[in-house]
Design brief:
This is Epoxyqueuosine reductase. By secondary structure, this protein is an alpha+beta fold. The chain has 13 helices and ten strands.
Length: 309
């Protein structure tokens, strides 16, 4: 076995030991097609108030701008489908936010993987990213053979669904590259488009981020949510899983085995009244390690008020 094959197997094997479910590797190249699509999407204002999407455009499409001399883009997937679903008829929370903040959990494991690579192979330049830097992670996942991008913009893994966190490790290490995923198993299905409460999913695999419930409940910083989406939130108070819940491929979802993502009892069971009764101190204590802390109590209260009236 030559060194490149050996290094590739070593990385894929250790990624499983770290709890990642899938690992694919693509050659680090400029993403010309994605550059054009991203430019069009931004020019139509589909990023809403997410101004950061406009920043660092060149970094998004060229991995060598993030890691000088980049040779390989390693994409890792971690299942987050919960073992229990919300039991309450109160506010609904997106499944990715049931447990600990995935940024913290996965970043630590990416760092461990990079450290292991350096210990086993030698000095390797690399950086890990998890939904926190200008990286087009779903494109890299498709290019590394892990799945296809569905009509709702999510990565879909055949026989496993879409409830996966995506992490990216860019390195200057040459590796064996997986074949890009060329199939698309969405076919003529339009369930995600039909189920989107605000009509944010458009034909042609375009998601208008400025109309998405996740945008309104998490990203929008204004004190008020626009009146034109009144009555469309279906009790979602943090994020939205409507398009994933109806996807036929998600019938294959299996509960994760990650202790860190174990659902918080409060998320599973609290009623609207109990959510409304949170004090600042209680909120900070309960959601200290949760993605929900991102909106702060003020944001949750705004969202609760919006879905109540």
């Amino acid at each position: 076995m030559n060194p490149i094959e050996q290094h590739t197997q070593l990385i894929k094997h250790y990624s499983r030991q770290l709890g990642f479910d899938y690992c694919g590797i693509a050659k680090a190249v400029q993403l010309e097609d994605d550059a054009r699509k991203l430019e069009q999407w931004l020019s139509k204002g589909m990023h809403g108030g997410m101004q950061y999407m406009e920043n660092h455009f060149d970094l998004r499409i060229d991995p060598a701008r993030l890691v000088p001399g980049a040779r390989s883009v390693i994409t890792l997937l971690m299942n987050y489908y919960p073992p229990q679903l919300q039991q309450t008829d109160g506010p609904r929370v997106s499944k990715y936010a049931y447990g600990q903040d995935y940024h913290e959990v996965i970043r630590a494991r990416l760092n461990a993987l990079l450290q292991y690579i350096r210990e086993q192979i030698g000095e390797v330049n690399g950086r890990g990213f998890v939904d926190s830097a200008p990286v087009l992670e779903r494109t890299w996942a498709r290019r590394s053979g892990l799945g296809w991008i569905g009509k709702n913009g999510n990565l879909l893994v055949k026989g496993a669904g879409s409830f996966y966190f995506i992490a990216t490790l860019i390195t200057d290490l040459p590796l064996q590259y997986d074949d890009p995923y060329s199939n698309d198993f969405c076919g003529s299905c339009t369930k995600c488009l039909d189920a989107c409460p605000t009509g944010a999913i458009l034909p042609g695999k375009v998601v208008d981020g400025s109309k998405c419930i996740s945008y309104f409940t998490i990203e929008l910083k204004e004190a008020l949510i626009p009146d034109e989406v009144k009555g469309q939130f279906q009790d979602w108070v943090f994020g939205c899983d409507a398009c994933q819940d109806v996807c036929p491929w998600n019938r294959f979802s299996k509960p994760h085995q990650q202790e860190a993502f174990a659902p918080l009892p409060e998320i599973l069971n609290l009623s609207t009244r109990e959510w409304e009764a949170f004090s600042e101190e209680q909120f900070r204590k309960v959601f200290k390690h949760s993605p929900i802390k991102r909106t702060k109590l003020k944001g949750i209260q705004r969202n609760l008020e919006f879905i109540k009236n």
